[in-house]
Amino acid sequence: MTEKDLSDRKFYRAGEETRFAEGGPERTPQTAHPAYKLAFRDTDFLLRDELRPVRFQLELLKPEMLLDEARVGSTLVMYGSARIPSPAQAEARVAEAAANGSDYDQKVAARLAAKAKYYDEAYRLARLVSEKGLIENGLRQFVVTTGGGPSIMEAGNRGASDAGSESIGLNIVLPHEQAPNPFVTPYLSFQFHYFALRKMHFLLRARAVAVFPGGFGTFDEFFELVTLIQTGKMKPIPIILFGRDFWTRVIDFEALAEEGTISKSDLDLFTWCETAEEAWDCISDFYELPRG
Predict the structure, then answer these.
(1) Three-class secondary structure of residue 206 per DSSP
(2) Residue 255: partners with Cβ closer than 8 Å, 6 or more residues away
(3) pLDDT tens digit string along 215-264?
(4) d(CA 83, CA 118)
(5) Domain boundaries, the chain
(6) What is 55-86+116-287's CATH number?
(7) Residue 254 CB: number of other CB atoms within 10 A?
(8) CA 198 to chain centre
(9) What does pTM read for this prediction?
């Protein structure tokens, strides 16, 4: 907006009106009552059940507008567990379980430690893609995006940070303690109340999605994505599944096709891989980009 546009304004902006209101008339029973607050400054009012549609819209608009301002054209989304340890943590977790845990605890710790390699692959994929610094039409492409939390998510943001690139974190308010990992770019660190709006923002700019071993949350995100593409609600993009042994142990994809509840061709909606290089080759082939 130009200086002339600003000088031609016929109405004050909301921020200016707010300053007028807060510096306004002396305090009286009328001005002290919540009813007198400007509606957009009245938190109690905005948190009413009836205002849920407005809160939906705010959670849609805020990240969308700020990502537009940050010139983010597309993203590489990374889904995965918040519980898989980094290789540096894995040995300590196994030792702790051996010293203090049950046989079940020791078994789980060992299985999680065996998946620590995926922390490294998430880190390497994020760094590999970020170092390319791809830009199209002045917009940044394949900007690394995670759920903003620990483990696999941290690995993605850390890989981008170590490449000297910015990355996005889409955090969610949970009843237990939840905070963004320290590698998310601060002005691209968002917090959501609604899972639905968070999942929408994961996919609005997604140009590829890498899915690492995970639990209910990862399953939810992966199956929603594959359903959107299967049903034609979303155009196909590369979906990269890391950890074939894990996924085929916990989900029998072939059985779904054999039972007739999905088509055999639906198994082609995602691609198996084990390394960052394989993942980038798959993405590169899909978009006809240079490999390596």
Answers:
(1) strand
(2) none
(3) 999 999 999 999 999 999 999 999 999 999 999 999 999 999 999 999 99
(4) 12
(5) 55-86+116-287
(6) 3.40.50.450
(7) 11
(8) 7
(9) 0.90
